[in-house]
Request: fold
Amino acid sequence: MIDIVEKIQFGQFDSKNEGFYLVERDAPTPAEKTVTENLSYANGILDFSNITGERFYDQRTITYQFTMPNVSYSERKLVENKVKRLIMAPFDQRLYDSHDKGYYWVGKAKSVKVDDDQANNKLVLSIEFDLYPFAIKNNSSIDNYDDWDTFDFDNDFIQPFSYQVDGKRELDLMNVGENSLSPTVVTSDNIEVIKNGRSYLFSPDKSKDYLFSLERGNNHVTIKGNATVRFVIQSEVLL
Reply:
């Protein structure tokens, strides 16, 4: 039997563990949200979609088709019921796809269709997911202090995310995502983070400040204090 290489994992459903072979994956880019105005006595249409400097998108759809060969009729019925239950139950779950190593998607299963191919003793499974438009870098666990275990050498930037600060330290933090983000700051003691002349205070009890954001590309910051500091950066990428 041919080994299963490509797979997805969603909630408790693991396509490889269940014995499904990936046949087709369809992941078109999401539709862009547009804000336009058609003014009289003006040529063309004014497009305000990029007024913040970023592009915004609707939910995206990713569909998969799997097959499970050489399965008896009685087993096919059991598999069909189990798969529908596992896939349709979760909501706002992470979808891991071996095609997108180092990233995950977030959303829900929109539909599950199972075709029983009695002539060939196989099941054909089709799943449609409704997902957040961006793939999220899989280094977002606050308790995961290994900076390199999910590193993607094709799409990422080589930098550590954990630092020792003794009094004062200058840092350059790279956001490789498509848009700005507010990182989680995990610190062992009280610190002050300065960016563009503005100060943000963090403590072991306060790890988030939505006013503190990292724009796309390089961000220079100054850290004052005495602590071990980790930046949990959930970069969002349009794959």
About this structure: The mean pLDDT is 85.
